[in-house]
Amino acid sequence: MIDFLVIGGGAAGLMAAIRAAERGKKVILLEKGAKLGRKILISGGGRCNITNHKNLNLRQFLANYPRGQKFLWSAFSRFGPQDLMNWFECHGLKLKTEDDGRVFPASNKSIDVLETLLKTAKQFKVEIRTNTEVIDLSFDPLGVLLENNNLITASNLLIACGGMTYQSTGSTGTAYKWAIKAGHKVSEPKPSLTGYLSTDPWIKNLAGLSLKDIELKLFSEQVLIAQEKGALLFTHWGITGPGVFKISSLAANKPQKELYLKINLFAEEKTDQLKTKLKNYWQAHSKRKVINCLDEFVSERLANYIIESVFSNLQKTVSEINNKEFGLLISYLSELKININGKRPSGEEIVTAGGVCLNEIEPQTMASKLVKGLYFAGEVLDVDGFTGGYNLQAAWSTGWLAGNSII
Ligand SMILES: Cc1cc2nc3c(=O)[nH]c(=O)nc-3n(C[C@H](O)[C@H](O)[C@H](O)COP(=O)(O)OP(=O)(O)OC[C@H]3O[C@@H](n4cnc5c(N)ncnc54)[C@H](O)[C@@H]3O)c2cc1C
Hints:
Elements: E1 2-7, H1 11-22, E2 27-30, H2 38-42, E3 51-52, H3 58-62, H4 72-78, H5 81-90, E4 95-97, E5 102-105, H6 110-123, E6 127-129, E7 134-139, E8 142-146, E9 151-159, H7 175-181, E10 186-192, E11 196-197, H8 201-205, E12 210-220, E13 223-234, E14 238-240, H9 242-250, E15 259-264, H10 271-284, H11 300-310, H12 323-334, E16 336-339, E17 342-343, E18 351-356, E19 374-376, H13 390-405
Parallel strand pairs: 1-2, 1-9, 2-6, 9-19
Antiparallel strand pairs: 3-5, 4-5, 7-8, 8-9, 10-18, 11-14, 11-17, 12-13, 12-15, 13-14, 15-16
Helix pairs in contact: 1-6, 1-13, 4-13
């Protein structure tokens, strides 16, 4: 009899399979693709940001998960970021931590992460079957139905099929229907960690420009739905970058109509401080033309857009700026509006918000409360985090816990 049947050879499935096999269980892992870990390979721009070591205080670490914060407590207590780093180093993978806390393989190559997992799976005799798509589940007896109509039964079954992003990696959302068949609820999958499209003509001209430490506020039908500080990158299609990703994550389950963003380029200063700063500078440079009035404060391409929007006469000097122009300039600097015409094409987001609802899963084991022997792990769950290694950490931890819990 097979002890543990794992569906999905991503981060969660591989970690679960290895942990159960380490414990002496007979494990089979089924992967529909020709290769395992396709999402691991593309993660972190091909470097694979496996976790984050910036703040290991559990409460603060969990603050990086807009969904699943409470649920992940047990998984991270049992197998958290430090345990994961120890695990990889014990299995021969050298790691490095960058200044912002993101942890990568020292080689900067995601393939080294995958190879460490595959080598360990082999060492503990996990039976891996690639090109093997699960078509349906059976609950009595517990098992899976394959394309050739073969039924494989097992004492325990893990669904680790991922979410619905980058579908070319195999995560196509097929597992949600099995969860529903098992009686579980599934919260509607929505894109998270995504860029926004904008057809505002000035955006295109700023392609490549990055703004750091700004404040971003997202509005839907004029109601503020998400607010965050961070970085923004202009592209030829719209806006992206860590701050934009965070905003998209915080707003994932909010209404998304008539979206626009307001950004404050001086997030660290109150409006009065900004006004004083500009006035003081202009007093010391009173002969300066308005076209150069933001030289010290804002990058040239963005400054040109703002100045051309505010002033009709670019030849006047800063001492000639009137109150109306000054007010308008301040609002451009502190509430620069970007109209949004949608998100990046579906499937290109980094992670799925939504998935199998958490109240029907045991957080201490990842077991279904509804079907004995059924487990869930990874992105298929209604759990998602910000960028920085948090999504993979959730996959490793929930996978490890499932593999550690099966009887
Ligand atoms: C471009 C990109 C970059 C990212 N970078 C990072 C990063 O640097 N750090 C980070 O923390 N997170 C990152 N993420 C997110 C992270 O990679 C995922 O959250 C994580 O890999 C999910 O792991 P998983 O095991 O749950 O699912 P997946 O990796 O999606 O694995 C699911 C597996 O199940 C298989 N499967 C599905 N259905 C079936 C079936 N019916 N039968 C058999 N097999 C099936 C699939 O083929 C797939 O191999 C990134 C995501 C993307 C898209």
